Amino acid sequence: MKTTSFTKIRNLIKSITIYCITMTILSCLWLPLASANSELTEVKVSLGNSAGELQFFPSNLEFETGKSYKLMLDNPSSMKHYFTAKDFADASWTRKVQAGKVEVKGAIHELELKPEAVAEWVLTPMKPGKYELYCSIKAHKEAGMVGEILIK
Ligand SMILES: [Cu+2]
Fold it and tell me: N or C: which end of the chain has fewer CB within 10 A?
């Protein structure tokens, strides 16, 4: 009788221990996800301007490895432009791209923004380096619609 209740208590302690360890592991996994959601650094980039200049404003962007960003793109000009940064995209983890009511998930290499369009690119840069940015519309790159993205 005594041994049975002792075994019961031992089993109970074992269960509680397993439960505590599981909860600790789960909360460790959950915390970075939860905090990543609330700590998005906003970076705004305009593709061209209302005067029709072929430039990115700003043209030099800086990111930190492992930090999460909301890259807010807009096109205030009267022509369409591209935000093309293939290597930067490959060096980052894209959580989503949101434009209007559409959310795109998965790998992204360039975004086309029609006049007046806005888009949000939520990403986490992963690989340090210098990456090229340009607009892939014919003659825009040559006219100076280029930029540089630095991941520190
Ligand atoms: Cu362009």
Answer: N
- Tell me, in angstroms, the distance from the centre of ligand 1 to residue 89's CA: 18
Indicate the number of domains in the chain.
2
pLDDT digits (tens, 9 = 90+) for 59-102: 999 999 999 999 999 999 999 999 999 999 999 999 999 999 99
Task: State pLDDT tens for residues 47-70.
Answer: 999 999 999 999 999 999 999 999
Q: What angle do CA 75, 83, 49 make, to 5 degrees?
A: 30
Using only C-alpha atoms, the chain has a radius of gyration, in whole angstroms, of 24
Neighbours of ion ligand 1 (CB under 5 A): 81, 135, 137, 140, 145
My answer on whether 54 and 78 are in the same domain is yes
The pTM score is: 0.75
* 84 and 141 belong to one structural domain: yes
